Amino acid sequence: MKEQKQIKREPKDPMVPLPLKVPQSLYNELNEEAKDKGITISEEARNRLKHYPIPLTPALMYQLENNKNQKYGDLKPNMPQEALDVYEEVRKLWNILK
Predict the structure, then answer these.
(1) Whole-prediction pTM value?
(2) Is residue 87 within 8 Å of residue 72, measured between CB atoms?
(3) Which residues are CB-contacts of 21 (< 8 A; sequence separation ≥ 6)?
(4) What's the DSSP call for residue 33?
(5) CA nearest 73: which of 59, 92, 87?
(6) Could you read off the pLDDT of 33-61 as tens digits, one per residue?
(7) Phi first, then psi: what are they for 77, rounded to 5°?
């Protein structure tokens, strides 16, 4: 008989309730964002709490990376060497943030 390898999974972080009151305007904002993303309002609230005060969410990082690459592609043909060096330094910083 072949031995089956067991995959060791990390235990999930248990969820606990955190009842709190927020202004109606914030609730509406969370609700709209959640609907737009196709997630629950709780998931949207957790995401915001996790990334506060700097919301470097995966979606924002993706958008920033795409904008940077597009602008770089537009400017690269006319860039002096100093600008190319600065670009490389910024690229290294982005890799650290990922």
Answers:
(1) 0.48
(2) yes
(3) none
(4) H
(5) 87
(6) 999 999 999 999 998 888 777 767 777 88
(7) -60, -25
Q: Which tokens sit at 41?
A: 């309002």
- b/e sequence 63-98, b meaning 16+ C-beta within 10 Å: eeeeeeeeeeeeeeeeeeeeeeeebeeeeeeeeeee
DSSP 6: P
Q: In this predicted structure, what is the pLDDT of residue 25?
A: 94
Helical (H) or strand (E) element with 21: none
Supply 7's token pair: 């995959």
Q: What angle do CA 42, 47, 50 make, to 5 degrees?
A: 120
Neighbouring CB atoms inside 10 A of 45's CB total 19
